[in-house]
Amino acid sequence: MGRNLKLKKESDFEFTKNHKRLLLGSVFLMATSAIGPAFLTQTAVFTSQFFASFAFAILLSIIIDIGAQINIWRILVVTGLRGQEISNKVVPGLGTVISILIAFGGLAFNIGNIAGAGLGLNAIFGLDVKWGAAITAIFAILIFVSKSGQKLWTLFQ
C-alpha cells in the first residue's frame, strides 16, 4: 500500500548547499508562521503561571516541530510532488481530506489571531475584547481588499 511513489532517480538528484539553505529557510518560515498575537498572549499567561515546566514544554514542542518540518520538506523536495499529491498516492482521496483540514486549520488559526489581537488591544487600551477583535478584523479586511494592501502590509512588519 502506498509504495508506488515515483521518486526522482537518486543519480539525478544532488542535495547541494543551496538545497539545504532553501530547506532550512522553509522549515523556519513554517515554524515561525505559528507565532501570532494569540500565541504570544497565551504564552505570556501560561509562562507566568507555570514557569520552568511550561518553558520545557515550549522547547520540546519547538524541537519536535522543526524535526517534523525537516522530514516533510525532504519528502516534498525529493519526490518533486505537492503534499496532497503524495497523500493521494498513499491513500486515494487522502490529499483532499488533508487539504480540507488544512483550510479549516488556517481558519481557526486566523480566528485565534483576531482574538489575540483583541486581547492585546484590551491589555494596551482597556478596550473590550470583542471590540478589539472587531476592530482588528475590520482593519485586516480593509488591508486585504485594498489595491495598495501590499504597501500597507509592509508598514506593520
UniProtKB/TrEMBL annotation:
Principal place of residence: membrane
InterPro entries xrefs: NRAMP_fam (IPR001046)
GO molecular function: metal ion transmembrane transporter activity
Domain of life: Bacteria
Keywords, in A-Z order: Membrane, Transmembrane, Transmembrane helix
Compartments it resides in: Membrane
Gene Ontology cellular-component annotations: membrane
Transmembrane regions: 21-40, 46-70, 90-111, 123-145
Topology within the bilayer: Multi-pass membrane protein
Protein's recorded name: Mn2 and Fe2 transporter
Gene source species: Staphylococcus aureus
